[in-house]
Every structure is written in C-alpha cells, then in structure tokens.
Amino acid sequence: MSMSFERYMLDTVQPMRDDLTRLGIQELRTPEEVEAALPTAKGTALVVINSVCGCAAGQCRPGVGKALEHDVTPDHLFTVFAGQDKEATAKAREYFAPYPPSSPSIALMKDGELVYFIERHQIENRSAEAIAADLAGAFDRFCR
C-alpha cells in the first residue's frame, strides 16, 4: 500500500483548510488568484496566512472564527496556506510590507492597502479570545 507524499499532505491539511473555508473565507491558491483579489478588493479585506503549526490550530483559526462573529466584519475574506500553496503565499506577502514572512499571520487591508497586521509572535502565546478581541478592535476601527 503506497500513497504519494503529495496526496498524503493534501489529505492531511484539508481539515486545516476547512477550518477557514467553512467560515466563508475564500482560498487563494495561485499567485494569479491573489493578484486578482487583493489589490482590487474594494473596502476591507481580511487575509489569513494559514499554517499547519499548533498555534494556527489552537489560536489563529479559532481566533479568526470568533472575530467573524463580531457585529462589524470585513467586506472580503481570503486565505492562503503557507507551506502548501507556496507561490500564492509569496504573492500575498508582497502586500504585507514592511512585515517579514510570518505564518500564521493575519492581515487587514483597506482598498488594497495594508492597515493592520498580526504576526506569528503575536499569536503563538495568546488565546484565541485575545486574538479575536484584537481583530474585533481592528474591524471597528477600519471596517465601518
């Protein structure tokens, strides 16, 4: 019985993708999809850099889910998957300067410009509730 590494990884990470897509967050899997979505998104756009790490599972994805229960939310919801959709992630990160690559991480953009960013070090030792509260505050500030 043999399974390709690629198939194994796709099957393994699918539940991690589903954590966000079931919230209505659109996956951007290619650089072309990123280029079509991010710079042209009118209003506000949340971009989650997803990851297989424990802080993505325990804090980032649950924190995003809780934040999206807030009264005010972004107009557009996107995600790229670091380490899986590498080219799409690299293209998305071009919009997050001056921040270095970080996964997981969360960006909030307004009319194609970065206005708020949560880096990995701001995720890994905090609760999902604290991350959700930070995001809700950013939503109140930039998404009204």
From TrEMBL:
Matching NCBIfam families: YphP_YqiW (TIGR04191)
Gene3D superfamilies: 6.10.250.2150, Glutaredoxin
Highest taxon of the lineage: Bacteria
InterPro entries: BrxB/BrxA (IPR009474)
Designated name of the protein: BrxA/BrxB family bacilliredoxin
Organism: Paenibacillus mendelii
Similarity section: Belongs to the bacilliredoxin family.
Pfam family, one: Disulph_isomer
